[in-house]
Amino acid sequence: MSDTALAAPRSTVHVALEGRGYDVEIGPGLIAGAGRLLVPLGARRVGVVTDENVARLHLDPLMASLEAGGLAASSTVVPAGEASKSFAVLEEVSNALLASKVERGDLVLALGGGVVGDLAGFAAAILRRGVRLVQMPTTLLAQVDSSVGGKTGINTRHGKNLIGAFHQPSLVLADADALSTLPLRDFRAGYAEVAKYGLINDAAFFRWLEDNWQEVFEGGPARTKAIAASCANKAGVVARDEFETGERALLNLGHTFGHALEAAVGYDDKRLVHGEGVAIGMALAFRFSAELGLVGADQADRVAAHLKAVGLPTRIQDVPGDLGDARRLLDLMGQDKKVKAGKLTFILARGVGQSFIANDVAPENVLSFLTSELSS
Amino acid sequence: MSDTALAAPRSTVHVALEGRGYDVEIGPGLIAGAGRLLVPLGARRVGVVTDENVARLHLDPLMASLEAGGLAASSTVVPAGEASKSFAVLEEVSNALLASKVERGDLVLALGGGVVGDLAGFAAAILRRGVRLVQMPTTLLAQVDSSVGGKTGINTRHGKNLIGAFHQPSLVLADADALSTLPLRDFRAGYAEVAKYGLINDAAFFRWLEDNWQEVFEGGPARTKAIAASCANKAGVVARDEFETGERALLNLGHTFGHALEAAVGYDDKRLVHGEGVAIGMALAFRFSAELGLVGADQADRVAAHLKAVGLPTRIQDVPGDLGDARRLLDLMGQDKKVKAGKLTFILARGVGQSFIANDVAPENVLSFLTSELSS
């Protein structure tokens, strides 16, 4: 690692959780500087978990940095893609961490996107009933969303993230340089979650994104600002509601629809990646809100227009191939975690930046809305 | 369920944990009375997990009681035995609970011994990132130990309980009638954990057990007293140290040796069950303490004499078949969770009721002790 790299300007966002608060560091050079940044955590061993793609790009400099920092590091590389969020891969990762004798005071380090973060985070949560976790997200999606807040988990045939744990990291290192190796499609998918924070509770941020999204895509200060603003927004929500008993559900804006779409394509990321599902889901949430008379159709159009402008999908029909009918999509929502007593919970909106939790959405209303969307 | 059954005298032990305290109810008729006892928890669905042996004896009356109590109940039956504490069975149980649509406000109910409690408890901990758990232990071991305190988990090829979670139950129902169907060997194995509480910090209880163990084995008030005293002792330790950062490690008296022996027989419960491993482990811990000059040999003899009197094993050679040499047993201890920086943690004793945590036991001392035990 170079001293110059670590000396470059960084943003720090603190997640204020009683007894287990932690920092999110955002800036360039953090992968190469990891060894030094982890010293304060006082571990002896670090079990790195990553995927094949990320390993090719970033594993060697990371391992060199950890070893230079005096840490005994081992690594486990899983196949890239959502299919690794399975019991089978979780078992492999767990056994690999045990084989490398990661003990209670040691660290699991997740180097990669949301899949690696969710999988390695869950492995850390259950290894010896819980060891500390460092998240080192290498995608925009993971940097602004999944690496912060402690949600970890795997998928089952019944749906996504239905098995998992709340396990807060001890540190998040978001290396801004890592995003320069991302394919445009992945960057766009992550951008959906950036826009989400504006739509939930920050109309000014959404307006700023409408004006500055090109610069965010190009990199530089606007990108760093967008990442830090997103992390700060999420940190606030998580600090107020760690276990999703209330406000935190707002972060699911677009996700109930989105998860159903992901399930409908069998988690085939050639057809749909998570952020694209969220983009369509947010557009649907605003149109559904308009149909329920909660918000003007102009606001729903504005949301869809911005997502479309950056190149994101906004309609169910934007997903290639057959997804089944409205009834099938509704059934796939029923297995989402956000079900209570037969009613569906949706995040709906009264305007941009004015989202709210609706706990008692009747399945019939959703069915008729989806039917009209599919035939539009 | 009969009103008479529930009206019979019960002992209640409260586990005082900030924000998630719960009661342990001990008495007759609790399986048949479960439907009524669960009403205050306000769930709609109960996903019962049990094993083949327990299902034959207790599942029908339990399901009838739950349904009479207005609860939608489903059940999953796993093979009996330690082998069910695996990733494969965990995945099956998780999928079964998802298929029966156990939601966040619902309950997982573990009906059975320690294996079922650990497995179902872990499934509850990770299902939708955590749903509530009711423990209904049907063995003495589970009633006095594993059902109280929130430790859950499965085994891997690297050792026992190396993957798991802390997940406190919302209620524990210990049906005293259920113990009358236990084979003597299982009752004895559970008794090892009862005696453990005396050895840790309650010399008067150990003395009482020396005088009254026959009545505990026969049933009736002495048995109930022994169970309640054990639960109360454990509840106190757990309330003071939920996550085993200190005092709770005392509950591992006999377990570091015991787990190594269990691993050495490949968790073959024909050769050794957990409580037998603990009995041998406690005898070894006292003899090791004597060898280190911490306690008189007469105290070690007293402990072994009582365990032997009730029919429990006290020497490594009491386990049938070959266990390997001292080096192998030591290596199996090294993968125990209780390792820190290459030193071994043992619970040693300065007397009956005077156990303490020794964090810095040198592996060489253990090796020489085991070598002498194996050649004695």
UniProtKB/TrEMBL annotation, chains A, B:
Required cofactor names: NAD(+); Zn(2+); Co(2+)
UniProt-recorded Gene Ontology molecular function terms: 3-dehydroquinate synthase activity; metal ion binding; nucleotide binding
Superkingdom of the source species: Bacteria
Record domain 3-dehydroquinate synthase N-terminal: where: 77-188
Cellular compartments per GO CC: cytoplasm
EC number(s) reported in the record: 4.2.3.4
InterPro entries: Dehydroquinate_synthase, DHQ_synth_AroB, DHQ_synth_fam, DHQS/DOIS_N, DHQS_C
Record has Zinc as a keyword: yes
Reaction catalyzed: 7-phospho-2-dehydro-3-deoxy-D-arabino-heptonate = 3-dehydroquinate + phosphate
Protein family: Belongs to the sugar phosphate cyclases superfamily. Dehydroquinate synthase family.
The protein, known as: 3-dehydroquinate synthase
Organism: Agaricicola taiwanensis
Organism classification: Bacteria, Pseudomonadati, Pseudomonadota, Alphaproteobacteria, Rhodobacterales
